[in-house]
Amino acid sequence: MRPLDETHDPGLASWVESANRLDADFPIQNLPFGVFARDARDPGRVGVAIGDWILDLSAVHAEGLLTGDAEIAARRSSVPHLNDLMRLELRYQRALRAQLSGLLRAGSPTERIPGLADRILIRAAAAVLRVPAAIGNYTDFYASVYHATNVGSLFRPDNPLLPNYKWVPIGYHGRASSIVVSGTPVRRPSGQCKPADAAAPSVGPTRALDYEAELGFFVGRGNALGEPVALDDAADRLFGICLVNDWSARDIQSWEYQPLGPFLAKNFATSVSPWVVTLEALAPFRTEAAPRPPGDPAPLPYLTGTRPDASAVDLTIEVWLSSDRMRAEGRAPMRLSAGSARDLYWTPAQLIAHHTVTGCNLQPGDLVATGTVSGPTSDSLGCLLEITRRGASPLTLPTGEQRAFLADGDEVTLRGYCARAGARRIGLGECRGVIVGAPAR
After folding, report:
1. Half-sphere exposure of 91 (CA within 13 A, CB side)
2. Which of 173, 275, 375, 424 could make an S-S bridge to 343, C-beta 3.0–4.6 Å?
3. What is the spatial distance between Cα 96 and Cα 80, in angstroms, rounded to a whole number?
4. 152: alpha, beta or left? (left if phi > 0; alpha if psi -120 to 50)
5. Model confidence pLDDT, tens digit, residues 112-135
6. Which of 63, 101, 46, 111 is nearest to 276 (CA)?
7. Is 173 an active-site residue?
8. Which residues of 299-336 are buried (b: 16+ CB within 10 A; e: fewer)?
9. How far apart are CA 132 and CA 215, in angstroms?
10. Beta-carbon neighbour count of residue 167 at 10 Å?
């Protein structure tokens, strides 16, 4: 578990004024890491989000403003990925966070250095944001029992939840090469489908394109091949968290998924938010795992540990939809749902412990996602498959348009934030993607 310290003080303010707004995603209590470029030709380097600005860590290092372990961590900031920073021991990451917090505080000596802000800050709106890590491997889990039950009920009304679900965290290995940063257009995929009334399958653009609102955890220090990670140590192997939209072609998926699970229905695009909120920043929002209903089996010993697992996070994920017509008419996006990570059946630490129980070696920069985050109410469902009951109950947009699944021109935006009494609200920013038509055949 990550301890609370002075960097979490809700009373802290920054000399970067936009970071002090109460609704700011990136106040001084957050300080998430990402990769940015000044233009399309810039290979990129590590930055820290603060208000509406990005702190250029290479520039901060060049100014000689960091010392000790923080200076060692900052040396890893001139490359276009976070992997080198992620692989460091926690003491280096904590030292960097602490010194950056001190440098950015209102009244700090750095506030009075002539011209410093111009040398170390760039407006976020002027930067090109990149996928934050070189992601070697991507694993997507099925950690929401509500999502699993809702989806199961659509296909197996009498037995929605498979018998292994409450014993084993279910997951699949995804496609790392098609992970894209927020704002990247998502092309409608084509694939093989077989409608229920068709005698044979055919190939064509998906007619059931969906989003999935998820959280992603980036691995920090990995583990050696053949050496499982104990549950008690699992949270310390995680660097930070981002938003994930695991786009899904439901008609392709329903035809191909048996017997081996998701494949082409999910390999065409997965969007991630550009800023990685560290587990240090999330410390005020830790929570215990959701209580298991009476009669549910207790997790097996390797998923239980010897001390309480508080790796779960009290975090809200909102989903917003805007159609091409809505934007043309100047209408605001429509909120479809607001789910909570508190409702996940399996915690992040349990996902890591299970992923490595065989001795699988996780590596710095690997992405581990929760799967769709859904809750117990109709306004907390994390995908259209659940909201529209597989298209049987389409939703109506403010323009009168109806949606069973996504249409070309639709833009889906995920937003995530943590808010709790006695702590400063922090956010994960946005994860956006607009659907563009399938290529001509």
Report:
1. 2
2. 375
3. 18
4. alpha
5. 999 999 999 999 999 999 999 999
6. 46
7. no
8. beeebebeeebbbbbbbbbbbbbbbbbbeeeeeebbeb
9. 15
10. 13
Beta strands in 109-251 (DSSP E): 121-123, 128-130, 138-141, 171-173, 179-181, 186-187, 190-193, 202-205, 209-210, 213-219, 238-245, 248-249
Structure tokens at 320: 């917003």
318 — pLDDT class (breaks 50, 70, 90): very high
Residues 6+ apart with CB under 8 A from 41: none
What is the total residue count of the chain? Answer: 441
How many percent of the chain have pLDDT more than 70?
Answer: 99
pTM: predicted TM-score of the whole model, two decimal places = 0.96
Dihedral sign from CA coordinates of 30, 34, 40, 45 = positive
Give every CB contact of residue 67 below 8 A, 6+ residues apart in sequence. 99
Q: How far apart are CA 257 and CA 270, in angstroms?
A: 18
The catalytic position among 8, 61, 81, 147 is 147
**Residues 277-291: what's their mean pLDDT?**
94
pLDDT digits over 170-197, tens only? 999 999 999 999 999 999 999 999 988 8
d(CA 12, CA 26): 13
